[in-house]
UniProtKB/TrEMBL annotation:
Coiled-coil portions: none
Protein name stated in the entry: Extracellular solute-binding protein
PROSITE patterns (alphabetical): TAT
Pfam families referenced in this protein's UniProt entry, alphabetically: SBP_bac_1 (PF01547)
Transmembrane segments: none
Length: 435
């Protein structure tokens, strides 16, 4: 039976934690030296200023009552968080216990550096926690070198946002249909565009990945660069043509912050981006399309519909924490079936299958959005960027042919140059990984 953290008494919570320790699943061995911290020492959580962390912070008093320990949560921007981790973990600092990180962006590097505690025995040896209840793609990305190092808290998929008042017969089912309708509806002289999306060099790679997969390509094949293969070139050319012919001017500089308002202000017919941002289009303060926006799964290409389906944020425990067992108690509570359902009912897409199967929980989302999210969760690819140590550098290399395509330049020669650079990068990245 899953544990309901909302109704769990402090006594039973402590008994449960003690039972886990006696069963050999405690993390006491990873605590740094210096003796056992006093009860006055807070559990320190370093997190991104994100809707999930904002939501869980409202329930911290509940955990403090259960655990008998104060919690200190610091919220930073994603860039500030990455910099803080780099400084603190390089110094083996003990003032961070629970870390909110991007499994696809930082986990491989953190694992390589020995910064994350091994959670394998904890998640697999705790039947009540229900590790198998987490979405398969999310579980897959939580593992590095056969060790579970993080537990996912937020998941993300691309959604096709579209104007239902402009499209007869529903959303386009294929990428070819998306291209045709985008060209048909574009009226650039009237400042109305068929399609808008991210076009900035490295920032566009995540959203482009679904086009790449659905057109039969991948970032690597058998560990080697695949970005100059015919399928990848077709994906570069398709996405570039879509934005070049039907998108707004200046799109090569557009990140989420620039692209999203164009659709929200009713200036585009179609937009592909993360499902997590859907509330922006329902907020009357920033959106003029709240009554006309609709949601659909990612359209199919020659390889079918292959959207990314990833854990965008996860929780891990610092290898240098002096409160490792309390850190696990927090993660166990924050990612329990009950808590995931409670947060997802407030519109935060979690990583548990039980939440996605719960009709009451899904009622938080518009029905067509819930269907699109469920579809992508079932068929999605578990990665939206190269699986490397230096993710930022890899995205920058891969994004160069994308910019050329958007500018209407020949893609193949740029892709071949980027492919050679990426191939060399992969060799060096593997050397660093093995060193």
């Amino acid at each position: 039976m899953p544990i309901d953290s909302h109704h769990l008494s402090r006594r039973s919570f402590v008994q449960l934690a003690a039972g886990a320790a006696l069963g050999g699943t405690a993390l006491g061995g990873c605590a740094a030296g210096g003796g056992r911290p006093s009860r006055d020492t807070p559990l320190r959580i370093l997190a991104c200023n994100h809707v999930w962390s904002q939501a869980i912070s409202k329930h911290l008093a509940e955990f403090e009552e259960l655990a008998g320990r104060r919690v200190s949560m610091s919220l930073l921007t994603a860039d500030q968080l990455a910099n803080s981790f780099n400084v603190k973990l390089n110094a083996s600092a003990t003032d961070v216990d629970v870390m909110m990180l991007r499994a696809l962006q930082e986990q491989l590097l953190f694992a390589h550096n020995g910064w994350l505690a091994d959670l394998t025995d904890l998640v697999s040896g705790d039947a009540a926690f229900g590790w198998n209840d987490f979405l398969p793609a999310s579980r897959e990305r939580s593992v590095t070198t056969r060790k579970v190092l993080t537990v996912p808290v937020v998941t993300e998929r691309p959604v096709l946002y579209y104007r239902k008042d402009l499209v007869e017969g529903g959303a386009p089912k294929t990428l070819d249909d998306l291209m045709a309708l985008s060209q048909q509806l574009a009226r650039p002289r009237e400042n109305f565009f068929g399609f808008v999306g991210r076009g900035q060099r490295s920032g566009a790679v995540t959203q482009w990945s679904s086009f790449l997969y659905s057109l039969g390509g991948d970032f690597t094949v058998q560990g080697r660069s695949a970005i100059a293969r015919p399928e990848a070139i077709r994906a570069y050319e398709f996405y570039g043509r879509l934005l070049d012919r039907t998108g707004p001017p200046g799109v090569t500089n557009m990140t989420l912050e620039q692209a999203m308002p164009i659709f929200a202000q009713g200036k585009a017919a179609f937009y592909v981006d993360a499902d997590a941002i859907y509330t922006n289009f329902l907020d009357p303060k920033i959106s003029t399309v709240r009554d006309t926006v609709a949601f659909a799964p990612f359209p199919a290409g020659p390889a079918g519909s292959r959207p990314y389906n990833i854990p965008s944020w996860s929780l891990g425990i610092s290898e240098f924490s002096r409160l490792p067992d309390e850190s696990w108690q927090f993660i166990r509570w924050a990612t329990s079936q009950d808590m995931v359902k409670r947060l997802q009912a407030d519109g935060i897409p979690g990583a548990r299958q039980s939440a996605w199967s719960d009709r009451a929980t899904l009622a938080a989302f518009p029905p067509d959005l819930a269907t699109a999210m469920q579809t992508s969760s079932r068929i999605g690819v578990s990665i939206d960027r190269p699986d490397v140590l230096q993710v930022g550098r890899a995205r920058d290399i891969i994004g160069r042919p994308l910019v050329a395509a958007i500018l209407g330049e020949p893609v193949a020669p740029v892709a071949r140059e980027a492919d050679a650079e990426f191939a060399d990068f992969l060799v060096r990245d593997n050397r660093h990984r093995e060193g």
